Amino acid sequence: MAAENGNPGFLKRTWHRLRSPSAKWSVLGLLVVGFVIGSVAIIGTQVMVNVTGTDKFCGTACHSMQWVAKEHRDGIHGTNRTGVAATCHDCHIPKDYPYLLFYKARAGIKDVIGEMRGVIDTEAKFKAARMEMAKHVWEEYAGNNSQACRNCHVFTKEVLAKQKEMVRPIHATVMEGKATCIDCHKGIAHTAP
Ligand code: HEC
Ligand code: HEC
Ligand code: HEC
């Protein structure tokens, strides 16, 4: 502010400087600076995606996630005999860039605002809001043919042959495109509301 008051041409001069070619810096120097800034931005983004992508972060950063997190931990996709788990991210965040970043940013902002307003900060409030949230997830899965499930579960004739006999004809309808996972497997990671 002081600069603007005491020096009316400040903005104009800065603008002029920004627009003129650099006298001091070589093109190589500028490229290196640009490269370093770009790298830091990319690595920083990647670190944030990883830090905020663990079950520990998703299940504990917000008070309101603790209930679903426990159900997930105790369920087949959390702890099972083969030790292969599906994380919150696997089921709730698309895995393709750049879509992953938009999705995470949107979901994160919404959740933080909800947390601060205390929308679901008690178990009672959580239970009341649960149906609404589940519906959003179901709609999303119905809209993308349960893509998240199919990232891990790939059905072929050979796979079906290894499944329980009573399930085979049912899953055959999935392979014909007549049904999608979430039509039948609601409540697969958390208690369905
Ligand atoms: C990250 C990979 C992954 C994702 C994503 C995933 N699953 Fe699974 N799922 C597994 C694994 C691994 C098992 C087997 C666990 C075991 O039995 O050892 C499993 C088991 C199951 C079972 C068998 C349950 C049982 O009691 O035997 C069903 C049903 C299932 N998944 C449905 C789904 C549905 C529906 C989705 C999408 C909402 C989904 N899975 C998403 C990896 C995944
Ligand atoms: C039309 C209903 C229906 C659809 C759609 C459906 N399933 Fe199933 N699925 C079932 C039923 C019923 C069972 C048997 C339930 C049980 O054993 O508890 C089952 C069992 C399973 C099992 C365990 C198989 C076994 O042999 O133990 C897995 C894994 C599974 N489903 C994954 C999926 C995935 C992934 C999709 C989407 C690609 C899907 N299902 C779509 C109805 C369906
Ligand atoms: C195997 C896939 C899968 C995993 C893993 C998973 N979810 Fe879910 N989640 C779902 C589905 C499907 C729904 C929709 C409701 C339902 O069918 O239970 C859902 C619903 C929710 C809801 C809405 C409230 C509700 O109960 O329906 C929240 C919040 C949620 N999940 C958070 C999490 C968190 C946090 C984790 C990790 C600790 C996680 N989820 C792991 C599949 C998953």
Provide an overview of this structure.
This protein has helices at residues 2-6, 10-19, 27-51, 55-60, 66-74, 88-92, 99-117, 123-143, 147-152, 157-162, 168-175, 181-184. The chain has one domain: Di-heme elbow motif domain (Multiheme cytochrome fold), CATH 1.10.3820. Helices cover 64% and strands 0% of the residues. It binds heme C (3 copies). One heme C (HEC) binds next to helix 6 and helix 9. Keywords: Cell membrane, Electron transport, Heme, Iron, Membrane, Metal-binding, Transmembrane, Transmembrane helix, Transport. Its main location: membrane. Its cofactor is heme.
Can you name the CATH architecture? Answer: Orthogonal Bundle
Structural class: mainly alpha
Number of H/I helices? 12
Helix content: 55-70%
Shape: elongated
**Whole-number radius of gyration?**
25 Å
Quaternary structure state of the chains depicted = single chain
Average pLDDT across residues?
A: 88
**Strand percentage:** under 5%
CATH homologous superfamily, by name?
Di-heme elbow motif domain
Protein name: Cytochrome c-type protein
Domain NapC/NirT cytochrome c N-terminal: 21-193
Binding site for heme 3: 149, 152-153
Organism: Usitatibacter palustris
